[in-house]
Amino acid sequence: MFSGVTTRFVTFEGLDGSGKSTHLSTARGWFEDAGAPVLATHEPGGTLLGDGIRSLFLDPSRGALDGTVETLMVFASRRQHLLEVIEPAIARGTVVLCDRFTDSTFAYQGFGRGVPLELLRSADALATGERVPDRTLLFDLPPELARERGQGQVRQTKPGGVDRLDAEDLAFYSRVRQGYLEAAAREPDRFRMIDSSGSELETEVQVRNALADVLAEFSGAAGVIGASGASGAGG
Fold it and tell me: Which domain holds residue 138?
């Protein structure tokens, strides 16, 4: 069933505070409604080992980590994630929706921390065999707004509160955004740009349109929608 589907691995990328995680959860519901086998996961994490690494990676009480330490941590998590979760799910015919993947590492550790891009390419080749998603949704917004959301009251009241990356300064956010934009410019066929600076509903409409062709492969009825057709979930 669904053997002709070509897009199985979809990643959601963007700055902390861009709303990508909430919209991934909404998208999972669309695939479920279409009768598609779907798995939602995240990085760092997605496995017992990865979630342990994630806890250490984001915990501000652990002190400062340099970019190379961060790189080694996220690629260790990613390797386990691919072997244990992502590749087996795709082999079963499941659509995998992943909150962050290697594009995050190039943006955050490469552009944000200044780790040489060639070093990141070597680590990627070792850990993932340079695995590339079939489609990437990039949630883009001004770094000032992303930082405001990342440090806002809603974020502070969530489990874990403001993490180590949320607390970074505006210059860091700006460098990370530049890294994402350059990646999208290099691979326009893979990336779908989502302007997440507006309302939750406006963002959701863009996400639905960016996935409409993939959903249609399962349901045959998931077309492009306008604002009046969205469910209102998002954030």
Answer: 9-229
